[in-house]
Specification:
Structural class: mainly alpha
CATH class of one domain: Alpha Beta
Strand content: under 5%
Number of helices: 25
CATH topology of one domain: Alpha-Beta Plaits
Strand order of the largest sheet: 1-2
Number of strands: 6
Helix content: 55-70%
CATH architecture of one domain: 2-Layer Sandwich
Largest sheet: 2 strands, antiparallel
Length: 497
């Protein structure tokens, strides 16, 4: 049954990749006028005249030509001194999408059902037979798993995931057919055509749900893991995916109500504040809710339960890491050098987020674009969004799962994890208690720790684990054969630091 599942999964991926070349592209007067702003039509049309006469099967060539045409127009305007007429809109994706004709555009629903039916069915056929195995995690030589010993496999998977994120963030017009396929679902959920971010949200949710089933099967001996996995599946499906789309359909500001600053680094951007104010009561509630969540909710809940309440039960990044990333959790670096890099890097990102947000708010309230006489707030905002919001959290944070483990972003870059960790380290009731007398030094706990903590070192000495990086996933306890490790909440003064 597992072999059939693998065949179906591979088949779905082959079809999915084939869809990239399943359309031809040709501009028509209607698609051009419906997509391009009126003031830009006379500027762009002469540069794209050939695409009104011929068809091309290559979305890469088609969209690249559109980008080149826009750059040529802007260069001409610069030479003429008419910079106020420059084209800032990104037409590469919208025009390529509008120009698509052929099998993909004509059979969107059919291709959607075929690909994801094969994927989900194949995944279930591969996952569910494990229910016949004896529950519980053994000392199963995971360090010799192909994901570790065959470095080439990790590199190949890593390259594929990194490539997808680069295309998604920076070249979405190259994967336009994937976006087109999701149009029917997007219209149902938000009333409009799919965007690159709808594609991302859908694939993200599918990954969490499917791999969440795998987690439920693998860790079914632990009630804590069952509840925790169901929680991240629920929050991703309902709060991160469905509610924002429904809000868009109601012409309200789209918002993931469980996401918060500084992870949601654009929360205080001017256009988002204005959107919420203009939306009236509901928008103001979203704004107040977002502030209360990080200013009041974080200290209170982290004091009571540690950072696990968010990082392991609610957060979408953590949810993807725990489900899709679980097969790679043993790859996290446990060295002292990695721990030192982690401490400096994650807190540096938090400081960067605070400075950037302060600059953004300064500009919003004063109208001045320069802070302290030398910091350009616009450049600062763009730099953070590109370097941290896109490259670090997306391309590196997820693409490096098969290379550096599943919590690369959470461990080294997430500013919210840094904030939660500071509270957990110094003022929290949460700890992982250890019973050193029962430890047999099997190493399961350290092997499975996704945060790179050498749990065995603490267990052998009977020391509580109160590290700020610990997300309280509880896997170390779930894989311990002797019950040495326990996740507990107790008086702060009784914690052994």
């Amino acid at each position: 049954m597992k072999k059939v599942g693998i065949i179906l999964i591979i088949s779905s991926l082959v079809v999915w990749i084939g869809l990239l070349f399943g359309n031809t592209f040709q501009l028509t007067d209607k698609s051009f006028k419906d997509t391009v702003l009126e003031e830009h039509q006379n500027l762009l049309r002469p540069k794209l005249e050939s695409f009104f006469l011929t068809k091309t099967n290559n979305p890469f060539v088609f969209s690249s030509k559109i980008k080149k045409a826009k750059e040529e127009v802007n260069k001409d305007l610069d030479n003429q001194g008419e910079t106020d007429l420059k084209i800032n809109e990104s037409y590469e994706l919208s025009l390529t999408k509008a120009a698509g004709i052929g099998s993909v555009s004509s059979n969107k629903s059919q291709w959607f059902l075929l690909v994801f039916s094969l994927l989900v069915l194949g995944s279930m056929l591969f996952i569910l037979p494990d229910l016949e195995l004896i529950p519980g995690i053994k000392n199963d030589g995971i360090f010799h798993h192909p994901g570790t010993s065959a470095k080439w496999l990790g590199i190949v998977l890593g390259v594929l995931m990194i490539s997808f994120y680069i295309l998604l963030y920076f070249f979405p017009h190259f994967i336009v057919n994937w976006i087109i396929v999701l149009d029917p679902l997007s219209r149902i959920m938000n009333g409009g055509e799919a965007s690159q971010w709808f594609l991302y949200g859908f694939l993200y949710t599918i990954a969490v749900l499917v791999m969440g089933v795998r987690m439920l099967v693998k860790y079914r001996h632990s009630k804590y893991q069952l509840l925790r996995t169901c929680s991240v599946m629920f929050f991703q499906l309902i709060f991160a995916f469905m509610i924002p789309e429904i809000l868009s359909k109601l012409n309200m500001p789209s918002a993931d109500l469980k996401n918060m600053w500084p992870l949601d680094y654009s929360f205080f951007f001017d256009y988002r504040i204005d959107q919420k104010i203009e939306a009236g009561t509901l928008g103001i509630f979203m704004f107040v809710w977002g502030i209360a969540l990080f200013a009041i909710g974080v200290p209170i809940f982290t004091y009571l339960y540690g950072k696990r309440w968010y990082c392991s039960w609610v957060c979408g990044c953590g949810g993807l890491a725990e489900t899709l990333g679980d097969p790679f959790r043993q790859l996290s670096d446990k060295s002292l050098k990695a721990w030192k890099i982690e401490r400096y890097l994650i807190h540096a990102v938090l400081i960067f987020a605070v400075v950037m947000t302060s600059a953004v708010l300064y500009t919003y309230f004063t109208g001045k674009s320069t802070l302290l006489g030398f910091l350009d707030t616009g450049t600062l905002r763009y730099t953070y969004g590109f370097a941290i919001g896109s490259v670090f959290s997306g391309v590196v944070g997820t693409g490096f799962y098969p290379i550096m483990g599943n919590r690369v972003w959470c461990r080294f870059g997430c500013p919210l994890a840094a904030y939660l960790g500071l509270v957990q380290r110094f003022k929290s009731r949460f700890r992982i208690t250890t019973n050193g007398g029962q430890c047999i030094s099997c190493g399961n706990c350290s092997t499975y720790c996704e945060q790179g903590i050498d749990v065995r070192w603490y267990a052998q000495r009977g020391q509580d684990i109160v590290r700020s990086s610990c997300v309280g996933c509880g896997i170390c306890s779930a894989v311990c054969p002797r019950g040495v490790l326990n996740l507990e909440n107790g008086p702060v003064e009784t914690r052994k630091i």
